[in-house]
Amino acid sequence: MKYSKEIKVGFLALIGVMMSIFSYNYLKGINLFEKNRKFTVKYEKVDGLSASNPVTLNGFKIGKVQKINFNPNNTRELLVDIIIENDVLFPKTSLAELYETGLIGGKAIAIIPDYKNDSTIASDGDLLKGVIKPGLTELVNQILPQVQLQIEALIKNAEIVLGNINTLFDEETKQELRSSIQDFSNLTKNLSETSDEISNLIVNNSENLTNTISELSKASSNIRTISDSISEEEVLKIASNLNELVSNLNTITKSLKDSEGTAGQLINDKSIYKNLENATNELNILIKDIKLNPGRYINFSVFGKKNKEFKKNN
């Protein structure tokens, strides 16, 4: 059976049209060979969302955004058509959350299933409730005004503090502070010089210090040897003798205190002290009188009269 050229051309044209339709839908994110479901989501704004952005469920991609248009009944709302390319099922009351996919921007839609409140499965063409998850930019925009107010208050308080400091530190106080800093610098310099001198002294006398330490070590060794040579019995004997000596001293002290014997009476009897004092005074008067009038007590002749009288007697 032979086909005419017209039939062949028509068949090729039909195939071309079908390929064009498939390619057009594929570029729009619709695969004609897969079972797709279409849902519509309402948002107040869709900053950064565009067609072909992913739709995920529990972090797994299950579809993509098909198109975005204004709601003809309410231009304050946006209608986003999404295509689910997976057979996954979720309740009709599930949320379609718009969120940021990274720090550099980019948006995606996450299906958050509502298994607790509704068991009705969402079907093709249903309207899902859309919510917007605050992104990093929005959080910064929300926090920034509060931070700005706090920074302004902090700057104002800092200005007040600086003003008080400038009022407190007048020229005289500043001059005193400069003088104190200079004195501290001089003290540090002197300490550094003293430290250097001590280091030099130690270096120059290191040999003497070594000898001194060696002598001290020998002396310590000798003391240890002497201590080890004294037996425990000798130590006890010395302690016993010391106790006996202390006891004897206590007895003597008590005897002197109780006026027993001549020494005790000399110490405690005031009359003996007075008699000795009177005798000393009289002796001093006698010595003074002898010095002033020696003729009363000493008789001698320079010319030897007594010798002549002695001869006459002979």
Characterization of the model:
- The protein is of the alpha/beta class and about 325 residues long.
- Among the domains are: about 1-35; about 35-135.
- The protein has eight helices and seven strands; from the N terminus they run H-E-E-E-E-E-E-E-H-H-H-H-H-H-H.
- The chain has a seven-stranded mixed barrel with strand order 1-4-3-2-6-5-7.
- It is rod-shaped.
- Residues about 305-314 have low confidence and may be disordered.
Q: What order do the helices and strands follow?
A: HEEEEEEEHHHHHHH
The averaged pLDDT comes out at 79
| Helix amount | 55-70%
Q: Low-confidence segments, ≥5 residues, pLDDT <50?
A: 305-314
The number of strands is: 7
Please compute the radius of gyration using only Cα atoms: 63 Å
What is the 3D form? Answer: rod-shaped
Compile the SSE list and pairings.
Layout: H1 5-27, E1 37-43, E2 54-57, E3 60-71, E4 74-84, E5 95-100, E6 107-112, E7 127-132, H2 136-168, H3 171-204, H4 206-229, H5 232-257, H6 261-268, H7 270-292, H8 305-313
Parallel strand pairs: 1-7, 2-6, 5-7
Antiparallel strand pairs: 1-4, 2-3, 3-4, 5-6
Keywords:
314 residues, alpha/beta, 8 helices, 7 strands, 57% helix, disordered C terminus
Concise account of the structure shown:
Helices cover 57% and strands 17% of the residues. It is α/β, with parallel strands linked by helices.
